[in-house]
Automatic annotation (TrEMBL):
<protein>
    <recommendedName>
        <fullName>L-rhamnonate dehydratase</fullName>
        <ecNumber>4.2.1.90</ecNumber>
    </recommendedName>
</protein>
<keyword id="KW-0456">Lyase</keyword>
<feature type="site" description="Transition state stabilizer">
    <location>
        <position position="343"/>
    </location>
</feature>
<feature type="binding site">
    <location>
        <position position="53"/>
    </location>
    <ligand>
        <name>substrate</name>
    </ligand>
</feature>
<dbReference type="InterPro" id="IPR036849">
    <property type="entry name" value="Enolase-like_C_sf"/>
</dbReference>
<feature type="binding site">
    <location>
        <position position="27"/>
    </location>
    <ligand>
        <name>substrate</name>
    </ligand>
</feature>
<keyword id="KW-0460">Magnesium</keyword>
<dbReference type="InterPro" id="IPR013342">
    <property type="entry name" value="Mandelate_racemase_C"/>
</dbReference>
<comment type="subunit">
    <text>Homooctamer; tetramer of dimers.</text>
</comment>
<dbReference type="InterPro" id="IPR029065">
    <property type="entry name" value="Enolase_C-like"/>
</dbReference>
<feature type="binding site">
    <location>
        <position position="273"/>
    </location>
    <ligand>
        <name>Mg(2+)</name>
    </ligand>
</feature>
<feature type="active site" description="Proton acceptor">
    <location>
        <position position="323"/>
    </location>
</feature>
<dbReference type="Pfam" id="PF02746">
    <property type="entry name" value="MR_MLE_N"/>
</dbReference>
<comment type="similarity">
    <text>Belongs to the mandelate racemase/muconate lactonizing enzyme family. RhamD subfamily.</text>
</comment>
<feature type="domain" description="Mandelate racemase/muconate lactonizing enzyme C-terminal">
    <location>
        <begin position="160"/>
        <end position="266"/>
    </location>
</feature>
<comment type="function">
    <text>Catalyzes the dehydration of L-rhamnonate to 2-keto-3-deoxy-L-rhamnonate (KDR).</text>
</comment>
<feature type="binding site">
    <location>
        <position position="245"/>
    </location>
    <ligand>
        <name>Mg(2+)</name>
    </ligand>
</feature>
Amino acid sequence: MNPRTKIKHVRALVAKGGEGGGGADYHDQGEGHWIDNHIATSMGRYPEYRQSRKSFGINVLGTLVVEIECEDGTVGFAVTTGGEPAAYLVEHHFARFLEGRDPFDYETIWDQMYFASQYYGRKGLVVNAISGVDLALWDLMGRLRGEPVYRLLGGAVRNELQFYATGARPDLAKEMGFIGGKLPLLHGPIEGDEGLKKNVAWLAEMREKCGPDFWLMYDCWMALDVHYATRLAHACQPYGLKWIEEAISPDDYWGYQQLKKQVPPGMLVTTGEHEATRWGFRMLMEMECCDLIQPDVGWCGGVTELLKISAMADARGIMVVPHGSSVYSYHFVITRHNSPFAEFLMMAPKADHVAPMFHPQLLGEPVPFNGRMNVSALDKPGFGVELNPAVKLRRPYVRN
Ligand SMILES: [Mg+2]
């Protein structure tokens, strides 16, 4: 390994999930999985798209894999969502800002990818692709230095990570040692008062099963309006709802500002999983939209951008608890005091056991044991994972 080597080649590959698990596109699961069972969305206003998110195309993109190879043969990689359209951008637009360059120039590389695509990008798919490249660069830097990424980010501030579990069975998550459970909201405003009552009843049932101290949260996946979200928050207050997540559209900063003023005192308003870059999160924070931000490391701009977002949040006393993102989140969370715990997505179809979040795409993907993960689980170069050769990858836009 030569730490002064230059980037020789960038490759973008794609994978589709399905029955065997979705990989980084974790919504791309087989039939009967809790993650696609009548979850409230803004598409729920159309009856034909209410039962399944796959019916309106939530898994249409699939996984993006970015590989960055250096002249000395070292390869760094990362996975995120974005599939073929993101692969096109990586190969035909962003690769020019990496090939021939020092891989430690991550600030310049990020800046050039972002501003070169600003006229069509700024958020969403384009920033997913930028994030994939950025994470592959951090993996590469770690491998070149022989260090885990968390050590390149300043080192661990704690000995272990603590996790809450997202899934349909917080009662089982409690038995597995997690500190809390986040339920998907099942019924949206279109299902009226009857749906609202069912939402409250499910929380009440889980509170009964989990006891008084276990954290319970609701993830609303952008499905609600401010009025409904306010009613839901107050109706859930007697059952100790810790936070209400992504209640309304990520474009409606004014709505979040209003919601944060209207929820019961002590209940947290959280959002940001579909927000991107320092500028998007600056808006959320300056407008006082929420108490806790949830950037997805694979969607918000990667680690390079998350460092900037996190610093702004820290100065404002706002917690940063990244959405999902597996190892890309773990290596970051362990280095920051204002990221006191992490999310674990229960990818087992019935949320009844711990399975690697990006299963089956990665080898060596660490998982929590008893709701915790010791920092030693992260002590491998880069992000510490390898691509599973059993998962077929395709390179749709070969350049040479
Ligand atoms: Mg969420």
